[in-house]
Design goal:
This protein is mainly β and 528 residues long. The strands form 7 sheets. It has an 18-stranded antiparallel beta sheet that branches. The longest helix is centred in the C-terminal third of the chain and has 5 residues. About 2% of the residues have low confidence.
Amino acid sequence: GGYDYQKGTGAVTEYPGYAGVLSSGNLSTRRDYTQEKTNQLLETYLNYVKTISAIDTKVDLLAGYSYQQFHNKVPSALTYYGADKLPTGDNDYEGKLTLLGFYGRGIFTIANKYILTGSVRRDATSRFYNGVDLKNNWGTFYAASGAWKIKNESFLKDSSVFSDLKLRAGWGETGQQEVGGYYNSFPSYGVSTSTAQYGFGDQFYFMYRPTQYNPNLTWETTETINAGLDFGFWRNRVSGSIDWFKKNTRDLLAQVGVPAGEFSNKNIKNIGQMETDGFEFLLNVNPIKTENFTWDFSFNVAHYNPKVTQFDDVADGYIIEQGGISGGTGNNIQGHSVGYTPFSFLVYQQVYDSAGKPMDGVYVDRDGNGKIDKEDKYFYQSTTPDATFGFSTKFKFKNWDLSTSLRAVIGNYVYNNFDSQSNTQSIATNDYLQNISSTTANYGFKTPQYWSDAFVEDASFLRMDNLTLGYDFGDIFGKGGNLRVFGMAQNVFVVTDYTGVDPEIFGNIDNGFYQRPKVYSLGLNFQF
């Protein structure tokens, strides 16, 4: 059981003489704000384990219940302070989200060779409610898997080559309810903003207005099948695993455009399906193991291939635009569409001159209608890389040890939003100082070209995350007392052709990234 409580308070005061401040005559504005958050958690389960010798089977049974509630309260009021002290409309927010779960699992290990597992979860969320019953609140998710410990079979049990060999396979479902706010399924009213007041006579009034909602929302469900092989050779001097999986996600939750006449131009819906397949490979090797010197290293690689396979209740070719960018209002650079990778970049195909310089505002007329419009945009690359790699190694010589870890991503593409909005010649020649992109000299655009595919850059990279060198003084404080001194460097280097500050950007839209620092530290580790 757990209970978390957080509270924060503050105030913002704006004076009428400040540039850019909207005030009522000579009155200053002050906005006091408070936020309170609580999180309640209860997790209770019963576990029963018994070995049935008569059938050489170990039974492991689990049944449980979980409860979690999130409560967020944000009062908000703006008041003009001055001669009249005019109050304005309140726009408080309070939200509660409750999650319930019942679950059960059984694991049956037969003769220490065959493992069968089955489980079921029954989950509920207060996010979904159709106004009549609770059928949309609840989701039921099943799973089953099996494993064969081949190494324990008689024909491999005494093998000096194989130290581990296990074949695995499974099928299962998981649910997803994280979308939007807490009340996307409920009809409600909200207070209008200060820019949407109703004028009556010489006064303007805040009004209550309906919010967009969808009573048909329900759980997004991902069905996964997978198969894998665990292996080990020569007393696990070489070990690892190979995994393949395929996922099918149905009832995808997304915010999509809706017809005119509703309360908003967008709403959250269960919109369609997506498929993902891929593989993962892990290898651990201990090539040298002597009394004074050991060397271990680990390598992994993964590849994923997601595709949107179906949209419901929309026309063919429908695109869900996402990935907001700076520059203009409401502009997006990414999209989802059937047959394409999610979060692909939706851009124009740039035309270059004979010298290889991009031409200002000149794009390929892909549909051949003699003009450049939104129909000429195409999906170019995505946020999904072709492959990810990881490597770590550790050397130990007598009392010295040296370790490091590196990561690489191939086919990682990033939209350089800083370049797209700050590379125009007009910025470089205006009367005020402003940071500009280093591509200005090469591109020379007179106006911003936000949707040029020239700004979608290959951001593949190799990064060393850390490097550690240590020395173990041994029993310096007598028997049982140990001292180890080590030096560590983090974010040691990155190798990339990306022109921005860092190729590893969350969401793959680079709009002024606060770069990762290089950190150097010295540590002392005592044991006694």
